[in-house]
Amino acid sequence: MAEAGPITLDIVTGFLGAGKTTLINRLLADPALADTAVIVNEFGEISIDHLLIETGGEEGIVELGDGCLCCTVRGALVDTLAELAARRPALRRVVVETTGLADPAPVLRAVMAHPGLSRLYRLGNVVTVVDAVNGMATLDAHEEARSQVALADRLVLSKGALAQEQERQALARRLARLNPQAGLFDADALEAAARLLEPGIAPRRVPPAGHHHAHHHDDHDHAHGPDAFRSVSLTHDRPLARTVVENFLDLLATQQGEHILRIKGLVETVEAPERPLLVQGAQRLLHTPQHLPRWPESGRGTRIVVIGDGALDTGYIGRIFAAFAGEAQVDTPDRAALQDNPLAIPGFRR
Ligand SMILES: Nc1nc2c(ncn2[C@@H]2O[C@H](COP(=O)(O)OP(=O)(O)OP(=O)(O)O)[C@@H](O)[C@H]2O)c(=O)[nH]1
């Protein structure tokens, strides 16, 4: 029997909320990419990405535990890739979605320098998604984002329709300066997504180890070089009125907006408890919440993760969420007073 050929390994990266999962769904919908498995890595202890990837079943998705792919869960990635390789020849391609905070260089090195894996896998493309609305500020502020762009074989500009044309063009020029070799694609104009993963012309260079990459892990604080990130997970087990959720998000944006990098969560609403409400935000851009068709097997209940810079006040966010969530159960005239002052103690009139 002929030996099965290597599996192509592609990496989809991009800063928090740039549109990686959205792009992966487009890739998976392309019949040219049947026989593809997806490995998802998320930052923040509540993971919902695997619920948002549409493969028609969950067996094609492997979720790595909470932690950064470029450090804490690198070993888990290596193990997962080795396990997936046993599915050859049926499995032809693996796409790894990194956390928005990962520097893809150590990930590439971990695979290509591994004697077993480098025989089983062939490196395909690094596809980096850059959000047209937040991209410029993100590149200014975060070294990880610049590294993601610099390592890309293909760059995809997302959310173009939400940005000003001038902004979009300036960002495209900056991307071309940062990485002149990479092909630049507009997500809105991308017809056959699988084209992004076609073999490129330039030979891949995996950057040498030893570049500046300092870490500390302290609960969910995470620092890469000069950047530091914090996250807070919010959960609630009873349905919340949609207005309560909207008011919470409004207050969050007003009070902590400058520190927020990503908001993502599922909410169980009073109005439609059968269908989870997906809440998404990337920096100051809050996307319109949408209902998903059904709850995942892991069950109902609200879970929201907020990721921000080192100045994100996670304690404050926890307190205002608790105040709003508690308020939803107190259906009394105090409701309005509490909405005006979410830090008020439920039932306590001023
Ligand atoms: N209008 C528009 N919205 C987009 C586009 N790409 C992504 N979005 C929206 O942006 C939000 C974040 O998209 P995701 O695909 O979840 O982003 P992500 O990069 O996977 O996020 P993280 O995994 O949390 O880093 C969602 O609400 C998407 O619907 C786009 O090209 N246009």
Automatic annotation (TrEMBL):
It comes from Chelativorans intermedius. It holds the Pfam family CobW_C. CDD domains: CobW-like. Residues 202-230 are annotated as: Disordered. Residues 216-227 have a biased composition (Basic and acidic residues). It catalyses: GTP + H2O = GDP + phosphate + H(+). This is CobW family GTP-binding protein. InterPro entries: CobW-likC_sf, CobW-like_C, CobW/HypB/UreG_nucleotide-bd, P-loop_NTPase, Zinc-reg_GTPase_activator.
